[in-house]
Specification:
Its EC number is 2.1.1.77. It is found in: Cytoplasm. By secondary structure, the protein is α+β, with helices and mostly antiparallel strands. The chain has a domain of 85 residues. The protein is 24% helix and 31% strand. A hairpin with a 5-residue loop joins strand 19 and strand 20. It is globular and about 65 Å long. It starts with a helix and ends with a strand.
Protein backbone atom coordinates (compact mmCIF):
# COMPACT_ATOMS: atom_id res chain seq x y z
CA UNK A 1 0.00 0.00 0.00
CA UNK A 2 1.43 3.41 -0.99
CA UNK A 3 1.92 5.99 1.77
CA UNK A 4 -0.78 8.62 2.25
CA UNK A 5 -0.26 12.37 2.89
CA UNK A 6 -1.19 11.75 6.50
CA UNK A 7 1.51 9.09 6.83
CA UNK A 8 4.14 11.62 5.75
CA UNK A 9 2.80 14.22 8.19
CA UNK A 10 2.47 11.85 11.14
CA UNK A 11 5.90 12.64 12.65
CA UNK A 12 5.18 16.39 12.61
CA UNK A 13 1.48 16.97 13.37
CA UNK A 14 1.54 16.14 17.12
CA UNK A 15 4.36 18.61 17.74
CA UNK A 16 2.52 21.36 15.84
CA UNK A 17 -0.69 20.77 17.80
CA UNK A 18 1.22 20.70 21.09
CA UNK A 19 2.94 23.98 20.21
CA UNK A 20 -0.35 25.67 19.35
CA UNK A 21 -1.96 24.44 22.55
CA UNK A 22 0.99 25.63 24.62
CA UNK A 23 0.69 29.09 23.02
CA UNK A 24 -3.09 29.06 23.73
CA UNK A 25 -3.86 29.42 20.03
CA UNK A 26 -5.75 26.11 20.19
CA UNK A 27 -8.06 26.18 23.19
CA UNK A 28 -10.54 23.37 22.51
CA UNK A 29 -10.41 19.64 21.83
CA UNK A 30 -12.39 19.92 18.57
CA UNK A 31 -9.90 22.28 16.95
CA UNK A 32 -6.98 20.22 18.27
CA UNK A 33 -8.50 17.24 16.47
CA UNK A 34 -8.94 19.24 13.26
CA UNK A 35 -5.32 20.42 13.21
CA UNK A 36 -4.14 16.89 13.98
CA UNK A 37 -6.17 15.52 11.05
CA UNK A 38 -5.05 17.93 8.29
CA UNK A 39 -1.54 17.59 6.79
CA UNK A 40 -0.34 21.12 5.97
CA UNK A 41 2.30 20.06 3.45
CA UNK A 42 -0.41 18.97 0.98
CA UNK A 43 -1.29 22.66 0.58
CA UNK A 44 2.25 24.09 0.51
CA UNK A 45 4.44 22.02 -1.81
CA UNK A 46 6.46 25.16 -2.59
CA UNK A 47 6.86 28.58 -1.03
CA UNK A 48 9.14 31.62 -0.85
CA UNK A 49 11.39 32.11 2.15
CA UNK A 50 12.20 35.66 3.17
CA UNK A 51 15.82 36.85 3.16
CA UNK A 52 17.49 40.24 3.47
CA UNK A 53 20.31 40.90 1.04
CA UNK A 54 23.46 42.97 1.62
CA UNK A 55 21.61 46.15 0.62
CA UNK A 56 18.87 45.59 3.21
CA UNK A 57 16.30 44.64 0.55
CA UNK A 58 13.76 41.86 1.15
CA UNK A 59 14.30 38.92 -1.20
CA UNK A 60 12.03 35.90 -1.60
CA UNK A 61 13.86 32.61 -2.27
CA UNK A 62 11.96 29.64 -3.72
CA UNK A 63 11.70 26.56 -1.49
CA UNK A 64 10.29 23.10 -2.25
CA UNK A 65 9.38 20.07 -0.16
CA UNK A 66 10.99 17.40 -2.29
CA UNK A 67 12.06 15.05 0.50
CA UNK A 68 10.40 13.73 3.65
CA UNK A 69 13.27 15.14 5.71
CA UNK A 70 12.25 18.67 4.63
CA UNK A 71 8.63 18.39 5.78
CA UNK A 72 9.50 19.72 9.24
CA UNK A 73 9.87 23.19 7.66
CA UNK A 74 6.17 23.14 6.74
CA UNK A 75 5.05 22.27 10.26
CA UNK A 76 6.61 25.27 11.97
CA UNK A 77 4.32 28.00 13.33
CA UNK A 78 5.22 30.44 10.54
CA UNK A 79 3.55 32.05 7.55
CA UNK A 80 4.75 30.69 4.20
CA UNK A 81 4.50 33.08 1.22
CA UNK A 82 3.28 31.19 -1.84
CA UNK A 83 2.83 33.86 -4.55
CA UNK A 84 4.28 37.27 -5.52
CA UNK A 85 2.67 40.15 -7.41
CA UNK A 86 3.99 39.77 -10.99
CA UNK A 87 3.87 43.55 -11.47
CA UNK A 88 6.51 43.96 -8.74
CA UNK A 89 8.66 40.85 -9.27
CA UNK A 90 12.31 41.17 -10.25
CA UNK A 91 14.75 38.25 -10.29
CA UNK A 92 17.87 38.97 -8.24
CA UNK A 93 19.60 35.60 -8.65
CA UNK A 94 18.79 31.98 -9.37
CA UNK A 95 15.63 31.06 -7.49
CA UNK A 96 15.17 34.43 -5.76
CA UNK A 97 13.06 37.51 -6.46
CA UNK A 98 12.01 40.81 -4.97
CA UNK A 99 8.29 41.57 -5.00
CA UNK A 100 5.08 42.07 -3.02
CA UNK A 101 3.44 38.87 -1.67
CA UNK A 102 -0.11 38.20 -2.87
CA UNK A 103 -0.86 34.82 -1.30
CA UNK A 104 0.41 32.72 1.59
CA UNK A 105 -0.27 29.85 3.94
CA UNK A 106 -1.02 31.74 7.12
CA UNK A 107 0.84 31.07 10.35
CA UNK A 108 -1.00 28.11 11.95
CA UNK A 109 -1.12 29.82 15.34
CA UNK A 110 -2.92 32.82 13.84
CA UNK A 111 -5.33 30.55 11.99
CA UNK A 112 -6.06 28.58 15.16
CA UNK A 113 -6.72 31.72 17.16
CA UNK A 114 -9.14 33.06 14.55
CA UNK A 115 -10.95 29.73 14.26
CA UNK A 116 -11.34 29.59 18.03
CA UNK A 117 -12.59 33.20 18.05
CA UNK A 118 -15.19 32.21 15.45
CA UNK A 119 -16.98 30.10 18.13
CA UNK A 120 -18.39 27.82 15.46
CA UNK A 121 -20.94 25.19 16.46
CA UNK A 122 -21.93 21.91 14.80
CA UNK A 123 -24.30 22.42 11.89
CA UNK A 124 -23.36 26.05 11.23
CA UNK A 125 -22.60 27.21 7.70
CA UNK A 126 -19.30 29.09 7.26
CA UNK A 127 -18.10 31.50 4.57
CA UNK A 128 -14.34 31.89 4.19
CA UNK A 129 -13.05 34.96 2.36
CA UNK A 130 -9.66 34.15 0.83
CA UNK A 131 -9.27 30.47 -0.08
CA UNK A 132 -5.52 30.79 -0.69
CA UNK A 133 -3.83 27.41 -0.47
CA UNK A 134 -6.97 25.71 0.87
CA UNK A 135 -5.45 24.74 4.24
CA UNK A 136 -7.87 26.81 6.32
CA UNK A 137 -10.81 25.44 4.33
CA UNK A 138 -9.53 21.94 5.06
CA UNK A 139 -9.48 22.66 8.79
CA UNK A 140 -13.06 23.94 8.59
CA UNK A 141 -14.05 20.79 6.69
CA UNK A 142 -12.42 18.60 9.32
CA UNK A 143 -14.35 20.42 12.04
CA UNK A 144 -17.78 20.85 10.39
CA UNK A 145 -18.00 18.63 7.33
CA UNK A 146 -17.33 19.94 3.84
CA UNK A 147 -21.04 20.47 3.01
CA UNK A 148 -21.07 23.41 5.44
CA UNK A 149 -17.89 25.11 4.17
CA UNK A 150 -17.95 27.75 1.42
CA UNK A 151 -14.87 29.70 0.30
CA UNK A 152 -14.26 32.56 -2.14
CA UNK A 153 -10.96 33.75 -3.64
CA UNK A 154 -10.19 36.44 -6.21
CA UNK A 155 -7.74 34.17 -8.07
CA UNK A 156 -9.40 31.40 -10.16
CA UNK A 157 -6.10 29.52 -10.43
CA UNK A 158 -5.77 29.40 -6.65
CA UNK A 159 -9.33 28.12 -6.39
CA UNK A 160 -8.64 25.30 -8.87
CA UNK A 161 -5.41 24.30 -7.15
CA UNK A 162 -7.00 24.41 -3.69
CA UNK A 163 -9.89 22.24 -4.93
CA UNK A 164 -7.46 19.59 -6.21
CA UNK A 165 -5.49 19.58 -2.96
CA UNK A 166 -8.63 19.33 -0.85
CA UNK A 167 -9.85 16.39 -2.92
CA UNK A 168 -6.65 14.47 -2.18
CA UNK A 169 -7.79 14.48 1.46
CA UNK A 170 -11.39 13.62 0.62
CA UNK A 171 -12.80 17.14 1.12
CA UNK A 172 -15.12 18.78 -1.42
CA UNK A 173 -16.28 22.15 -0.02
CA UNK A 174 -17.94 24.80 -2.19
CA UNK A 175 -15.08 26.86 -3.70
CA UNK A 176 -15.79 29.75 -6.05
CA UNK A 177 -13.75 32.49 -7.72
CA UNK A 178 -14.80 36.10 -7.09
CA UNK A 179 -14.21 39.24 -5.07
CA UNK A 180 -14.89 38.10 -1.53
CA UNK A 181 -15.76 41.64 -0.49
CA UNK A 182 -19.02 41.07 -2.40
CA UNK A 183 -19.75 37.96 -0.36
CA UNK A 184 -20.71 34.63 -1.91
CA UNK A 185 -21.79 34.95 -5.57
CA UNK A 186 -24.84 32.75 -4.98
CA UNK A 187 -26.07 35.03 -2.21
CA UNK A 188 -26.30 32.33 0.44
CA UNK A 189 -26.63 33.20 4.13
CA UNK A 190 -24.09 32.14 6.70
CA UNK A 191 -23.77 31.65 10.43
CA UNK A 192 -20.07 32.45 10.47
CA UNK A 193 -17.75 34.44 8.19
CA UNK A 194 -13.97 34.39 8.47
CA UNK A 195 -11.70 36.54 6.28
CA UNK A 196 -8.02 35.77 5.69
CA UNK A 197 -7.44 39.05 3.85
CA UNK A 198 -7.70 42.58 5.23
CA UNK A 199 -10.31 45.21 4.40
CA UNK A 200 -9.91 48.95 4.73
CA UNK A 201 -11.65 50.40 7.82
CA UNK A 202 -15.13 48.96 7.16
CA UNK A 203 -16.35 45.38 7.00
CA UNK A 204 -18.13 45.01 3.62
CA UNK A 205 -21.89 45.44 3.56
CA UNK A 206 -22.35 42.16 1.66
CA UNK A 207 -21.04 40.17 4.61
CA UNK A 208 -23.86 41.53 6.76
CA UNK A 209 -26.47 41.08 4.06
CA UNK A 210 -25.47 37.41 3.87
CA UNK A 211 -25.42 36.87 7.64
CA UNK A 212 -28.08 35.01 9.56
CA UNK A 213 -29.25 36.59 12.84
CA UNK A 214 -26.67 36.03 15.59
CA UNK A 215 -23.96 35.38 12.99
CA UNK A 216 -20.32 36.05 13.85
CA UNK A 217 -17.71 37.68 11.61
CA UNK A 218 -13.96 37.49 12.29
CA UNK A 219 -11.83 39.61 9.98
CA UNK A 220 -8.76 41.83 9.71
CA UNK A 221 -9.49 45.56 9.51
CA UNK A 222 -6.70 47.80 8.19
CA UNK A 223 -6.73 51.28 9.75
CA UNK A 224 -3.59 52.79 8.22
CA UNK A 225 -0.71 52.86 10.69
CA UNK A 226 -1.97 49.59 12.16
CA UNK A 227 -5.00 47.35 12.12
CA UNK A 228 -6.16 44.12 13.64
CA UNK A 229 -8.62 41.30 13.95
CA UNK A 230 -12.16 42.11 15.00
CA UNK A 231 -14.90 39.77 16.12
CA UNK A 232 -18.45 41.06 15.78
CA UNK A 233 -21.90 39.56 16.28
CA UNK A 234 -24.61 40.51 13.78
CA UNK A 235 -28.24 41.04 14.78
CA UNK A 236 -31.37 40.69 12.63
CA UNK A 237 -31.22 44.37 11.64
CA UNK A 238 -27.67 44.08 10.31
CA UNK A 239 -26.05 45.86 13.24
CA UNK A 240 -22.67 44.49 14.27
CA UNK A 241 -21.15 44.86 17.71
CA UNK A 242 -17.90 43.45 19.02
CA UNK A 243 -14.23 44.21 19.68
CA UNK A 244 -10.67 43.63 18.56
CA UNK A 245 -9.56 40.16 19.57
CA UNK A 246 -6.74 39.00 21.81
CA UNK A 247 -5.52 37.09 18.76
CA UNK A 248 -3.38 39.55 16.83
CA UNK A 249 -2.15 39.32 13.27
CA UNK A 250 -2.30 40.97 9.88
CA UNK A 251 -3.24 39.75 6.43
CA UNK A 252 -2.57 40.83 2.87
CA UNK A 253 -5.11 43.34 1.57
CA UNK A 254 -8.17 42.21 -0.35
CA UNK A 255 -7.80 43.08 -4.01
CA UNK A 256 -9.94 43.32 -7.14
CA UNK A 257 -7.42 41.68 -9.51
CA UNK A 258 -6.48 38.01 -9.36
CA UNK A 259 -2.69 38.39 -9.23
CA UNK A 260 -1.74 42.01 -8.60
CA UNK A 261 -2.52 45.05 -6.48
CA UNK A 262 -3.53 48.42 -7.94
CA UNK A 263 -0.80 51.02 -8.41
CA UNK A 264 -0.43 53.26 -5.33
CA UNK A 265 -2.04 56.67 -5.44
CA UNK A 266 0.38 59.59 -5.89
CA UNK A 267 1.33 61.44 -2.70
CA UNK A 268 2.03 65.09 -2.09
CA UNK A 269 5.76 65.90 -2.16
CA UNK A 270 7.52 65.57 1.17
CA UNK A 271 7.89 68.83 3.08
CA UNK A 272 11.51 69.97 3.02
CA UNK A 273 12.00 72.43 5.88
CA UNK A 274 12.91 70.39 8.95
CA UNK A 275 13.00 70.86 12.72
CA UNK A 276 14.74 68.55 15.20
CA UNK A 277 13.70 68.42 18.84
CA UNK A 278 13.84 66.15 21.87
CA UNK A 279 11.11 63.70 22.87
CA UNK A 280 10.37 61.21 25.61
CA UNK A 281 8.63 58.81 23.19
CA UNK A 282 11.14 57.02 20.99
CA UNK A 283 10.94 54.67 18.00
CA UNK A 284 11.17 51.50 20.09
CA UNK A 285 8.06 52.58 22.04
CA UNK A 286 6.07 52.52 18.81
CA UNK A 287 7.68 49.38 17.42
CA UNK A 288 7.26 47.26 20.55
CA UNK A 289 3.63 47.97 21.46
CA UNK A 290 1.02 46.76 18.99
CA UNK A 291 -2.00 48.12 20.96
CA UNK A 292 -0.36 51.55 21.00
CA UNK A 293 0.09 51.48 17.21
CA UNK A 294 -3.60 50.62 16.93
CA UNK A 295 -4.39 53.71 19.00
CA UNK A 296 -2.12 55.79 16.73
CA UNK A 297 -4.04 54.53 13.71
CA UNK A 298 -7.20 55.95 15.26
CA UNK A 299 -5.56 59.24 16.18
CA UNK A 300 -3.82 59.69 12.80
CA UNK A 301 -6.24 57.94 10.41
CA UNK A 302 -4.62 59.14 7.15
CA UNK A 303 -0.99 58.64 8.17
CA UNK A 304 1.30 55.82 7.09
CA UNK A 305 4.04 54.13 9.11
CA UNK A 306 7.28 53.08 7.46
CA UNK A 307 11.05 53.34 7.63
CA UNK A 308 13.55 55.79 6.20
CA UNK A 309 17.14 54.93 5.32
CA UNK A 310 19.45 57.92 4.93
CA UNK A 311 22.61 58.18 2.86
CA UNK A 312 24.76 57.21 5.84
CA UNK A 313 22.88 53.95 6.36
CA UNK A 314 20.95 55.14 9.43
CA UNK A 315 17.37 53.89 9.74
CA UNK A 316 14.48 55.82 11.29
CA UNK A 317 10.85 55.08 11.96
CA UNK A 318 8.81 57.42 9.75
CA UNK A 319 5.24 58.69 9.96
CA UNK A 320 3.96 60.51 6.90
CA UNK A 321 0.69 62.27 6.10
CA UNK A 322 -1.04 62.83 2.74
CA UNK A 323 -0.27 66.57 2.86
CA UNK A 324 3.50 65.93 2.81
CA UNK A 325 4.12 66.30 6.55
CA UNK A 326 6.42 63.69 8.05
CA UNK A 327 8.37 62.86 11.18
CA UNK A 328 11.31 60.52 11.76
CA UNK A 329 12.45 58.91 15.00
CA UNK A 330 15.87 57.20 14.74
CA UNK A 331 16.05 53.53 15.67
CA UNK A 332 19.06 54.41 17.81
CA UNK A 333 16.51 55.80 20.30
CA UNK A 334 18.57 58.90 21.02
CA UNK A 335 15.56 60.84 22.28
CA UNK A 336 15.14 63.11 19.27
CA UNK A 337 12.74 63.43 16.35
CA UNK A 338 12.95 65.38 13.12
CA UNK A 339 9.79 66.63 11.45
CA UNK A 340 8.70 68.70 8.47
CA UNK A 341 5.42 70.20 7.36
CA UNK A 342 2.78 72.47 8.83
CA UNK A 343 2.21 70.20 11.84
CA UNK A 344 4.40 68.18 14.15
CA UNK A 345 2.94 64.67 13.86
CA UNK A 346 4.99 63.49 16.83
CA UNK A 347 2.96 65.75 19.16
CA UNK A 348 0.01 63.45 18.46
CA UNK A 349 2.21 60.43 19.19
CA UNK A 350 3.27 61.92 22.54
CA UNK A 351 -0.31 62.80 23.53
CA UNK A 352 -1.52 59.31 22.60
CA UNK A 353 1.34 57.75 24.59
CA UNK A 354 0.36 59.74 27.70
CA UNK A 355 -3.31 58.77 27.36
CA UNK A 356 -2.48 55.11 26.77
CA UNK A 357 -0.39 55.01 29.95
CA UNK A 358 -3.05 56.88 31.95
CA UNK A 359 -5.51 54.15 30.99
CA UNK A 360 -3.15 51.39 32.13
CA UNK A 361 -1.75 50.54 28.67
CA UNK A 362 -4.90 48.73 27.46
CA UNK A 363 -4.58 45.80 25.07
CA UNK A 364 -6.32 45.74 21.71
CA UNK A 365 -9.24 43.72 23.10
CA UNK A 366 -10.21 46.75 25.20
CA UNK A 367 -11.24 48.55 22.02
CA UNK A 368 -14.72 47.92 20.62
CA UNK A 369 -15.77 47.85 16.98
CA UNK A 370 -19.34 48.44 15.81
CA UNK A 371 -21.22 48.95 12.55
CA UNK A 372 -24.72 50.37 12.17
CA UNK A 373 -27.16 49.15 9.49
CA UNK A 374 -26.44 52.30 7.45
CA UNK A 375 -22.74 51.43 7.36
CA UNK A 376 -21.57 53.97 9.96
CA UNK A 377 -18.64 52.40 11.82
CA UNK A 378 -16.89 53.34 15.03
CA UNK A 379 -14.19 52.18 17.41
CA UNK A 380 -14.25 53.02 21.10
CA UNK A 381 -12.24 52.43 24.26
CA UNK A 382 -14.55 50.12 26.17
CA UNK A 383 -13.75 51.27 29.77
CA UNK A 384 -14.07 55.02 29.11
CA UNK A 385 -16.27 55.22 26.00
CA UNK A 386 -13.79 57.42 24.13
CA UNK A 387 -14.83 57.10 20.49
CA UNK A 388 -13.37 57.33 17.00
CA UNK A 389 -15.65 57.38 13.95
CA UNK A 390 -14.19 55.62 10.91
Amino acid sequence: MSPTPFDAARPHLPALVERLQKDAAIRSARWAEAFADVPRHVFVPRWHERETNSRGITVWRAQHTIAASELANIYQDVTLVTALDPATVERVDTGAWTGVPTSSSTQPGLMAGMLEDLHVQDGQRVLEIGTGTGYNAALLCARLGDHLVHSVDIDPDLVCTARERLLTLGFAPDLVAGDGRAGHPAGRRFDRTIATCSVRRHLPAAWFEQSNPDAVIVADVALGIEGGLVRVSVDAAGRAYGHFTETSGRFMAARAHATTYPAPQPRAPYATETVTRTTTVVAVDVRNHYPFRLLLALELPEAELGYHLDDDGNTALQLQAPDGAWVRAPLTDDGSVTYAGERDLWRTVEAAWRWWHEQGRPGQDRFGYAREPDGATRVWHIPTGRRWDL
